[in-house]
Amino acid sequence: MDDDLNVTYITLGGYLEVQKYRYLYFMIMFTVYILIICCNSTIVCLIVIHRNLHEPMYIFIAALLINSVLYSTNIYPKLLIDFLSEKQMISFQACLFQAYIFYTLATSEFLLLSAMAYDRYVSICKPLQYPTIMRKTNVKVFLVSAWLVPACELVVSAVLNANIKLCRFILDGLFCNNSFFNLQCVRSAALSIYGVFMYLNIALFPMLFILFTYTRILIISYRSCREVRKKAAQTCLPHLLVLISFSTFFSYDIVIMKLESNFPKLARLIMTLQVIVYHPLFNPFIYGLKMTEIFKHLKRLLFQLKSH
User: Which of 8, 47, 117, 247 is least enclosed by beta carbons within 10 angstroms?
Assistant: First the structure.
């Protein structure tokens, strides 16, 4: 491969025996992608169709599931093409764009979970003020901010990265993420400082806010009657499970950049597959099975399909 091609293209080196199992990999991942789209879309459609689900909590859930579909669509089509290709490569510009979309949607999830935590806090701790605080206008502001704030903050990082010089051209992964920064000849101090600012602003602070609100909910629920405790458990537990799941995988993504090549290739592959397979499927199952109102409509839908 000549120098010009090296400058333009990056090889994705995270695949394991892809030549041997390419069709098996393709069929498994294609099936998973279809499942992700179907499962998430089914819950979103139920929320759109049924008027009793047109409440802020369910609207935020629908936004979270749409985010999961977008998150997967950023990764899976390229992944499926790579399984069938002789060489797993991506252009520098396309790699930068994929990483930008990946982190925009990932951090949007934290902000959506923050909005959901705030909604539960107001509902349980300030029930009389709930209709005033969680008006349609405020819900729209939360939704737009959840996607717009990360997109605007991360575009600065994308512009700065567009001018970096690469000294390595093999990325240790299946798609472009944090590992992209390990290809740089020299680590930019400005990029590192801005990266820390972004992680604090759109990941750590929202997570701390979520933990604070759920701690407040737990304290108030414990002091209240059994009905309030039951409501808190039913509506907050799914959100906490999703938060724990997503935080675990997001932490892995940060750690993997620090370890660089010290992480075994098989372990890296397994963890990466969990990030792109497990979490997008985890959300609809948790909300479909654990949220009582959604589960009722889902059960009715499945019964109707079975009867036909």
Answer: 8
